[in-house]
Amino acid sequence: MIVEFWGHEFKVNIFLGCIGGFLIAVVSSMFGFGGGPFMVPLMTIGLGLPMYVVVGSSLLAIFFNTLMGSMRHFQFGNFDLLFFLVMFPAAIIGGFIGPQIAKRISPLMVKRIAAAGLAILALNLLGVY
Amino acid sequence: MKHVRLAVAALSAVFILFAPDAFAEKSTMGSESPKAPVSMSKSAGYAGTMTISADKTALNNGGVITVTGVAPAGKPVYLEVWSDDTVRASRFDADVDKGTGKRPYRFYLTTEMPAYYKIFVPEQMKEKIDASRKDGKKWSLSRVLQETGADAACDVPASIKIDRYQATLMGSIVGSRGTLLNPMDPKEQKTQCLQLVKARFRSLDKVVGADIRIDPDGAFRAEIPIRSGLAPGQYKIVAALDNEIRSNTLTFENKISFPLLYLPNAGTSLNVFGPFFLTLAIVIFGVLIGAGGGFIMNPLFVSLWPLPHTIVAGTVMPTVLFSQASGIYNYSKIKFINWKLGTTIGLSMVAGGFIGPKMTELITLDQFKFVFGWVLLVLAGLMVWQTTPGYLEKNKKEQAILKEFKKKAESSAAK
Q: Do A9 and A72 fall into the same domain?
């Protein structure tokens, strides 16, 4: 598939994109997380697209998954309205505060700390300690 | 930063201001509502019956309720305690059947599981319960009940309605629960219900307790601990002697008040500030590291509170819908979305999103944690890779181009 973006043309292996997107969607809707951190590498490395094409289009693709996943979870009775109402305002407020803080700190440091934190949480979930 | 602190302080102040009101309202409601009287031993001494009485008719977010009664001397007494409030419980049976050697792949589902269910047995049987602890996660509720003799006292599990589905691989792929099978016979029904009780409450101590002290003359007394974080509303207690003899039913009410909140689908009461501030902190952190909050939120929610993983996955997912939609709107305003690419991959993701939520209820909490552990390890690896010099250099160029394009896009959108 040829993707045209701001006057540039990119040849994309759409088969790989769709298979990868499908697999990411199954796992992410099964476990209830957004697929962003996996979609971006898939589209940049797997499909060879530059970042500026990927940021918006990957969000659109993920939105499809989140919408479908949410509807299906609702259908299976996995949705708790009160729980949602507690988290939703916090998520909105966090979405405003986050970028304000992000401007002031080094993303490199945050990512290194996050990687360590994620690894610790992961090992805990795997029952290593 | 100053604004942030101010906002948080203001928010907390608002909550604290409203807290006493909410509390007062709840407690007056509680005292007005008619309560079933706790029965007194009217028919004491009548052979073949048993009466029990309790010291309280209400608890405030759990506590200890003392039940006393008299039974024929030398006989073990059991207490069955359950809540009127019900929740959903499900289990996917894919373990090899010992009789046939095949995997049944059956899905059991009920919406009538009490939000609280526990059997109390005489103190002497504590050793038998402890013995089951050696089985680790493979403990069997029906074995514990048989060994303590408490299976005669389990009336509630025999009466709840369980739907049984024959799952197929194809069915799971297209997102169907499978074929609904015929209702089970009473014996099978009870066995499956005990399995569901275990799947729902998970820990042995939550469903069996050795708290009944029986005197040689048959008088018994049990200090029943009702843990915090349970469903509000009416609870029932019945004492059982064997298959036949049952006592009167005692009723008590469990009250909860703000900031505790009962999540009816999850079947758990929790302090609203917990999930609220955890979500806030993780969403902020998520923005900083460029990964959605769900990655960290879901495993923390299932680890910190007794919330079912199905509910956590199904409720966290829609919280990002709004931020994703507003992100798409902002990008589309500056024409920063390739609709053809996004929609094509998006349609394949719709198919994935259709299947995934079905699979959530097929796995256990332990499997959920296990997969999440690996997902997070991969994510951590991605983060480390994003801090390597090679990536940073490439990213710098990309970010510069991105900025330039955004500027162009914004200025052309403004025209």
A: yes
Examine the domain organization and report whether B239 and B336 are in the same domain.
no
Q: What range defines the domain where residue B185 resides?
A: 36-257
Beta-carbon contacts of B135 under 8 Å, excluding residues fewer than 6 positions away, are none
Give residue B392's pLDDT band: very low, low, confident or very high (50, 70, 90).
confident
Angstroms from B406 CA to nearest CA on chain A: 8
Asked whether residue B266 is assigned to any structural domain, the reply reads no
Q: Is the pLDDT of residue B129 over 50?
A: yes
Residues of A whose CB is below 8 A from B259 = none
Return the SS3 of B14. Answer: helix
Where is pLDDT greater, at B10 or B110? B110
Sign of torsion over alpha carbons A84, B318, A41, B370: positive
Cis peptide before B259 (omega within 30 of 0): yes
Is the pLDDT at A10 greater than 70? The verdict is: yes
From the list B88, B291, B318, the residue facing A37 with the nearest CB is B291
Tell whether B119 and B224 lie within a shared domain: yes
Q: Which of A45, A55, A57 to mutate to test the interface with B (most CBs of B within 10 A)?
A: A57
| Count of the separate structural domains present in chain B | 3
Residue A7 and residue A65 in one domain: yes
Q: Give the tokens for residue B333.
A: 């305003």
- Note whether A70 contacts B387, CB cutoff 8 Å: no
- Helix, coil or strand: residue B290: coil
Q: What share of chain B is helix, strand, coil (3-state, %, to 5)?
A: 50, 20, 30
Instruction: Based on the fold, state whether residues A73 and A88 are members of the same structural domain.
Output: no
Contact at CB, A6 and B324, closer than 8 angstroms: no
**A71 and A112 part of one domain:** no
Q: ipTM of this complex > 0.85?
A: yes
Are residues A73 and A94 located together in one domain of the fold? no
